[in-house]
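Box S1 | Example of a co-folding query
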Amino acid sequence: FTFNLLCVGKSGLGKTTLINSLFNEDFSSIDANNVVNNSNQETDITNTNNNQDDEGVQPNVKIEVKSKTLIENGVKLKLTVIDAPGFGDSIDSTNAWDPIIDEINSRFDQYLDSENRVNRSATEDNRIHACLYFVEPTGHFLTPLDLEFCSKIHEKCNLIPVIAKSDILTDEEIETFKSRIKKQLDERNIQLFEPPIYKLDDGETINVSKKLYEMMPYAIVGSNDFIKDPNDSNKLIRAREYPWGVIEVENSNHSDFTLLRDLLIKQYLEELRERTANVLYENYRSEKLIK
Amino acid sequence: FTFNLLCVGKSGLGKTTLINSLFNEDFSSIDANNVVNNSNQETDITNTNNNQDDEGVQPNVKIEVKSKTLIENGVKLKLTVIDAPGFGDSIDSTNAWDPIIDEINSRFDQYLDSENRVNRSATEDNRIHACLYFVEPTGHFLTPLDLEFCSKIHEKCNLIPVIAKSDILTDEEIETFKSRIKKQLDERNIQLFEPPIYKLDDGETINVSKKLYEMMPYAIVGSNDFIKDPNDSNKLIRAREYPWGVIEVENSNHSDFTLLRDLLIKQYLEELRERTANVLYENYRSEKLIK
Ligand SMILES: Nc1nc2c(ncn2[C@@H]2O[C@H](COP(=O)(O)OP(=O)(O)O)[C@@H](O)[C@H]2O)c(=O)[nH]1
Ligand SMILES: Nc1nc2c(ncn2[C@@H]2O[C@H](COP(=O)(O)OP(=O)(O)O)[C@@H](O)[C@H]2O)c(=O)[nH]1
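Box S1 (continued) | Returned holo structure for guanosine-5'-diphosphate
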């Protein structure tokens, strides 16, 4: 039972911290497997020009893979986090999305090959089941890079944008920012993962699903630090302590963290895997066969 | 009596809010004068390629100028804020610093010309007296763009880097971030504005000057919102209200805002103008005469 989560965003947006908070693990202590491909050459800014082909800039983006086996909902889950350090960190981020798109495609290809083999039941599903895209909390708009990346990835991968480090914005600023972001995404027909609604769902369940979708992009906060739970001094909770107050990661008045955790882990993990298999992979497969 | 302040940083880092907070004014309501030069053509990302010359990328950065007459320390002051919208906001930020360097140079040239005229006493000093550079509060390091810009500007302009929206970082994270930033700047010999120490200064004054320098880059917070002063309900103070607490802009436990205001306005305004005239402009002038 695998779950493969792609995390994309500029350095310093709290990606590592959020993954640790979501899965209650420490991912920073694992050694990453670096995917060896074109973009993993030791290119720095001066080298980039030497690597130019007709497509232009060779992006300085690596693909890093870390796996852990967890128990989630009583089930053994192999969680793999795919990170893309370097994305958006150079002065010139042209084509920064290419190594990431290549990674998604190569995992589709890998599955395509394995489907054609004799011993299919032994296939581990390495396809990307969801992409968490971290948006800088400027309060203004999605950047050109945000829009370019999202438009390139939403048809290959379940896209879940999040507003990183959203504690920087007041509730009012979050509202304004979210509605502007959604408008920009709509204008470009960029599709986000939508929790499916089933015929047999009751009203309550339907409302929860709808709310999960309406609240995107999730304004999230994560933390590697713990304090005593003010309501239960025997428990520890993740928090960020400031001179002016304490932000509690799991407090729904403080951020949408619990909504993201519900979507990603507690309620829709299976739906994310299914949409990958039945819709996104099938689209990839038919496009490939047509060519 | 003029003070010309250049503000540079990506969109959404709170530049407008900080200027309003520093000078207790509303700069967003003034119409900006746009400087008409090469980079002011309506270039968007697709056009950029058409404008390439041997130097490569034509940056999509404008220069905007806004002026207000204020009373500071009982003196009439013409404050001019020079902004560079578009800086760092494109997918490719190569050469984004060029329009800004051009602006500094053209103001030096303007002063050079006016020095050669008959009626010199009527000359208004339009040279850039200080540059506030806004660093994204990632908590990690200065970005390649930060370093490139700072190394290009520090010999032309009094450089004062600030950590924008620093309320996103805990006190501990600010300490780590500041020492990494200073190390990176030292490694490249990037010089920041240093409050001068005079022979007749007493020990107290010397300590204040040294502290102002050691605390750079200033971890700042600004706000356009006001609340009642908890200590004096007849007064209003700038603040940011969150579900978990209230950040007070002028509270020195909450940010270095008051230190920046001391440096920029209350104590070293004259020193900034003098260093521009006696050191930075003189260097520019001699280099120009040599050529
Ligand atoms: N204010 C705030 N800071 C955060 C949050 N998450 C992480 N940080 C801090 O941001 C810095 C960078 O976090 P990190 O997880 O390493 O970011 P990454 O480079 O995207 O992996 C660290 O100092 C974290 O403590 C958050 O939700 N809010
Ligand atoms: N957390 C935080 N937010 C700020 C701060 N200063 C401004 N903001 C908010 O950040 C957003 C962008 O601010 P603005 O001044 O327009 O940024 P600019 O694009 O750099 O001029 C607005 O929603 C501001 O209220 C700050 O010091 N801390």
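The pocket of guanosine-5'-diphosphate (ligand 2) is lined by residues A 139, 168, 173; B 11-17, 165, 167, 221-222, 240 (CB under 6 Å). The radius of gyration of chain B is 20 Å.
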